[in-house]
Design brief:
This protein is of the alpha/beta class and 370 residues long. The protein has 2 domains: 3-123, no CATH class; 127-369, Purple Acid Phosphatase, chain A, domain 2, CATH 3.60.21.10. The chain is 41% helix and 18% strand. The chain has helices spanning 3-22, 29-42, 44-48, 54-91, 93-96, 102-124, 162-174, 191-194, 202-207, 223-232, 273-277, 296-299, 319-322; strands spanning 128-136, 147-151, 179-183, 210-213, 236-237, 241-247, 250-256, 285-289, 305-308, 332-336, 339-343, 361-369. The strands form 2 sheets. A 6-stranded mixed beta sheet has the order 1-12-2-3-4-5, with helices on one face. The chain has a 6-stranded mixed beta sheet with strand order 6-7-8-9-11-10. α2 packs across α4 and α4 (54-91) crosses α6.
């Protein structure tokens, strides 16, 4: 049994015990609810491997995602309640009785389900356009107002269908950007089963240069097929490589690094900032495309701007707050030394189709003189 599996089982067992004890006021039913939620999540390997017939896959996937979302929302409410009322119960037991009653527990479960419905609706509405101005001190006048459209973490596959992707493409093309960059986790899942869902992306490279870097999810299933397919539909795939975008008014060097998950395929397949710049020509500014934003501290000595994704900004409550504890560049525009870092919070979603406290985005970046 590998280490990851042992840790996962230990965490799920701990959550099962926690829910069983902390869903108070409903007697032995708390263990039934806890078992159903955690048991549904244990079914996830069945959908992860994408080997089930479509109809069964959709049913099990829906149950698993519902359980994941419900678990997160219940945990947040239970922890807040316990932090507030357990100390109070020692001071004045009568004041805390209602907080641990049958009514309170059922109310929390009802609130969790309501938030699931709201989050599901919000996720299916698709992304908003987020416009960001980034000042670059060395920007030549000819590149003033250069527009970059960024798509990240689309996760086209089991949860994101052809229609959703078509809508993304229409929105991006309406922006009339000078270049489109796709910063990883664009595709997800079995290539033969889901490659048709990314077909609309081919329209992007027909209108403007389109650059693509891998995310970790491209390496979970059929990485060579996915990468080859993106090249086939006109994407310039940068795997520790660079390309120069230039005209008579100025030049921008775009470099792209492979996601660390590439090491699962090849020992030397991870990100290499120095290699991405090897043999690069001179340029007015340098921009790095890297799926995971935490490479910024290594890249800041070489680039003016880094564009990333990966974090989803936690995607839904309470993880949209918890992620700040683990990710320095969890969302939006920040700095690593002299270099700007912009983290797109995801054009799609992964796992439970939920957006609570975050909204999917297409980023329109405008370069201005700093």
């Amino acid at each position: 049994m590998n280490r990851f599996l042992m840790i996962a089982i230990a965490v799920l067992l701990g959550l099962f015990v926690f829910l069983g004890f902390r869903l108070t006021g409903i007697g032995s039913s708390s263990w039934v609810v806890s078992g159903v939620i955690l048991g549904s999540i244990l079914l996830y390997p069945l959908v992860w491997n994408a080997k089930l017939p479509d109809r069964i896959d959709k049913i099990i996937r829906g149950c698993t995602y519902f359980a994941m979302g419900l678990l997160g929302l219940l945990l947040a409410q239970l922890l807040v309640r316990d932090i507030l009322f357990i100390p109070l119960s020692y001071l004045n037991p009568n004041l805390a009785v209602g907080a641990f009653s049958n009514t309170a527990t059922l109310s929390m479960m009802g609130v969790a389900v309501l938030f699931l419905v709201i989050g599901y609706w919000k996720a299916l509405q698709g992304p908003q356009i987020v416009k960001v101005e980034i000042p670059i001190p060395s920007l030549p006048a000819g590149l003033e107002n250069f527009l970059i459209a960024q798509i990240s973490d689309l996760h086209a596959g089991p949860g994101i269908d052809h229609t959703y992707v078509e809508n993304i493409v229409n929105q991006v093309l309406s922006l009339n950007a000078d270049i489109v960059v796709l910063t990883g986790d664009i595709a997800d899942g079995d290539f033969d089963k889901y490659h048709h869902r990314v077909a609309p992306l081919a329209r992007l490279s027909e209108k403007t240069p389109a650059l693509y870097v891998t995310g970790n999810h491209e390496f979970i299933h059929d990485s060579e097929k996915w990468i080859g397919h993106f090249k086939k539909i006109g994407m310039n795939v940068l795997m520790n490589q660079h390309t120069l975008i230039s005209n008579e008014k100025g030049s921008i060097l775009f470099a792209g690094v492979t996601d660390p998950a590439g090491r699962n395929i090849h020992p030397h397949g991870g990100p290499n900032v120095e290699l991405s710049l090897k043999g690069s020509p001179t340029s007015d500014i340098k921009i790095l495309l890297a799926h995971q934003p935490d490479i910024a501290d290594r890249a800041s000595a070489f680039f003016d701007l880094q564009l990333s994704g990966h974090t989803h900004a936690g995607q839904f409550f309470p993880w949209n707050y918890a992620i700040k504890l683990f990710q320095r560049y969890d969302r939006g525009l920040k700095k690593s030394g002299p270099m700007w870092v912009y983290t797109n919070i995801g054009t799609g979603y992964w796992g439970p189709p939920l957006r609570l406290g975050t909204t999917s985005e297409i980023t329109l970046i405008q370069l201005i003189k700093g």
